Structure prediction request, 420 residues.
Amino acid sequence: MAVFSIHGDIIWTEEPGSFRSVNNGYLTIEDEKIVSVSSSAPSCRIVDAEDCLVIPGLSDLHLHAPQYAFCGLYMDEELLDWLNNHTFPEEGKYADAEYADRAYSKLVRDLLRGPDTRVSVFGTIHTDTTLCLMQKLEEAGFSGFAGKVNMDRNSPDFLTEKTEQSLAETERFVREAGKFRNMKPVITPRFIPSCSDRLMEGLSEIIRKYDLPVQSHLDENLSEIEWVKELCPYSSSYADAYDRFGMLSSKSIMAHCVYLNDEEIELMRKRGSFIAHSPSSNANLSSGIAPIRKYLDAGLKIGLSSDVSGGSSLSMFRIIQDAISVSKLLWRLKEGSGRALSFAEAFYLASKAGGEFFGKTGSFEPGYDADVVILDDSADSTILRPELSVEERLEYYVYAHAEKSVKAKFIKGRKVFSEE
Ligand code: GUN
Ligand code: FE
Prediction:
């Protein structure tokens, strides 16, 4: 059995709003799991991260792999124009295996040097290149989910599937993805406007047959919501349009949820579905500000997500900053919206809360998966550095070094990245 211990300044959150830390501590790992955090050295191999921060791996609950190529471009439009003018044309290119190979290699390389250990990604409608994406994530050591996207209406010809073919390809995707150990398939209807009722019915059968998770978009943009009302006059809400196909459960991630009404909040709570809060994307696409305090108070499950490339950065540190920033703006601008997220709360959402979707990850409690990130702040430029607590050093790092490469990263106890 492989036992080792990481020696450094260890910090994590077990509950919203408060950090735990052990300065100059030892994080002991056996095989894939966390064993303990202690202040005395255990008698096993020690990995030296002295003077470095040791944090749990973060989870990105929602990103679009094929959009990374234009991450940081085309931020002047709202959702539906942005999709038609920029996103769909780019996603069409992923029919080409050589293009997809190059683009996905770059994404995975950049993800590896950041703080994420778990991801739930969208591919495109193309089965083979989405399998190629999964293979790259798996080989890099990532755990999580990837989905072949389904679209059979209201989309350009080059990105529109025939309903029956979309279903057959989805089953082929699910079966072929079975060869991966850590990356798993997730059913991925893009959103209601691009999926016919017949497609949704067929997907719900596949979900039941293979007991699969689901990811999609919900209540992101006001024009989108109006459109869904027209498309589904029989549904009492946008969330209900998914629910009637069995797509809301504790194995569902719904991205955005900027505009959930009371009925939808209750439905999401009852089903135990996860919200992928995407503050950067919601600002870039002028979508709005999701009332996260209200959702937390209502008992909803919430994690954070980059939503690349609605979000213009892959860095979950940047997303933590933005989650805090937009919650402050909402508190200031909208009476009764409740207090803003604290740094500790936002870190909790990015680590343990979002991690819950993947199992036990994002905390250093015994039995959690050993997903660990080491951050080197030893040469930090702030002259305050010698006086700072571990918590303050982490906050400084998240704000000052969001895009910097991590020093090392472990997923399920295995080192998957090291700066050297
Ligand atoms: N809704 C449907 N597709 C998308 C997408 O690619 N990005 C975002 N942000 N919202 C969507
Ligand atoms: Fe998205």
Remarks:
- The chain is about 35% helix and 25% strand.
- The pocket of fe (iii) ion (ligand 2) is lined by residues 62, 64, 217, 255, 307, 310 (CB under 6 Å).
- The mean pLDDT is 97.
